From TrEMBL:
Signal peptide coordinates: 1-16
SUPFAM superfamilies on file: Insect pheromone/odorant-binding proteins
InterPro entries in the cross-refs: PBP/GOBP, PBP_GOBP_sf
This protein's name: Cul n 9 allergen
Any one GO cellular component localisation term in the record: extracellular region
Organism: Culicoides nubeculosus (Biting midge)
Keyword entries, A-Z: Secreted, Signal
């Protein structure tokens, strides 16, 4: 009987636990240290952080979070500014990839929403290549 209670307790805790949020050792590149800085600067809620780390764009993302990252990466010039193609291309090249899908990603939104739109477009168009460039390391998978 005690074993059954223990099993149900463990299952209940697992189901109630929030999505996994990154730990300190997961911020293992310069890019991911920038991500951490922007998470702290924008006071990103844990649930939203877990979505971003799972490569999902939240329904209502924290205002200017991705813009903060892209500016610090040099991918955008100024808040809601223009895309710096050479910086994005350099980030892809640094992890062994080329030809980011910038030509097909023409954000129509303005301000900080432009960064969210660019993030979603590059993630959808380039998949793992974008993830590698964003993280600053090539995924071995």
């Amino acid at each position: 009987m005690k074993l059954i209670i223990l099993i149900f307790t463990i299952i209940g805790l697992a189901l109630c636990a929030p999505d996994e949020v990154p730990s300190g050792d997961q911020y293992d590149t310069d890019n991911l240290l920038i991500v951490r800085d922007c998470e702290e600067e924008k006071d990103l809620p844990a649930a939203e952080k877990a979505e971003w780390w799972d490569w999902k764009v939240p329904a209502n993302p924290t205002e200017c979070y991705i813009d903060c990252i892209f500016q610090k990466y040099g991918w955008l010039s100024g808040e809601g500014g223009s895309i710096v193609n050479s910086a994005v291309e350099a980030s892809y090249a640094a992890v062994g990839h080329s030809n980011p899908s910038l030509a097909s990603c023409n954000p129509s939104k303005s301000g900080c929403s432009k960064a969210d739109e660019l993030y979603a477009c590059l993630l959808n168009a380039d998949g793992q290549k974008f993830k590698d460039a964003f993280d600053g390391k090539r995924d071995a998978k």
